[in-house]
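Still learning. Any example?
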Amino acid sequence: METLYFQRPASASQVQPSLVGYVGSGDLEVMIEPSRGEFAEIHIQTSTAGSEVRWQQIIDQITPVIPLPAMRMDIHDFAATPGVIRLRIEQALEQAMSLGGSHHE
């Protein structure tokens, strides 16, 4: 397992806890917790060695489209494709920024 960390400036949006996917799904789990800081912190545990550039590109594609809130995002990746990664992150952010938050698989 490789552990990656990214930090981006956060928007002022409030978020609720969110969970999308689950560890046993075989591809990807994304968890979001609100933070009081000024940053969006993204912690990734991945089974794909040497994937930092791929993750950097995916995050760089999402951030201009969806302003990241102050949060801690934990991602557990089990060799998901870039399309699945982006879909799960966008689902988790949408949930977290909507009232109530919830769980999707």
